[in-house]
Amino acid sequence: MVFKPIIEYIKLLGLEEELYIGIENKKEYFLYDKKEDNFYLYDFTLRNQKIIIEYNGVTFHPNKNKLTESEWKTWSEPYSNMKADEKYNYDQIKIKYAEKHGFKILEIWSDETVEDNINIIKDFLYNNIEL
Fold it and tell me: Who has the most CB within 10 Å: 27, 29, 30, 46?
């Protein structure tokens, strides 16, 4: 729901060909870290613009700004069973790896309203897209 209107905006700008996203028969963008032998997948990428938007579902990504200390200690990712510290550190490595390769990153969260997330994304794109 968050990315659908953003995709329309990207189409209007004529940037659809550089969009990588895991919907509408497209694939997510990835970077490969040879040193760590690890692939990092990114939710929404405009490759040539060097823009990545990560949609963090609170079930799969711990939010340091919202979880209490007690919640942080008991949080675990449902598929991997990673604890909050481990998953948070992994997410930070993934973000820093993309930044190291020149990408500007925006993280949005599933516990924000769709409208707020859309507005945050539009502002981010407006300030970072070069036409």
Answer: 46
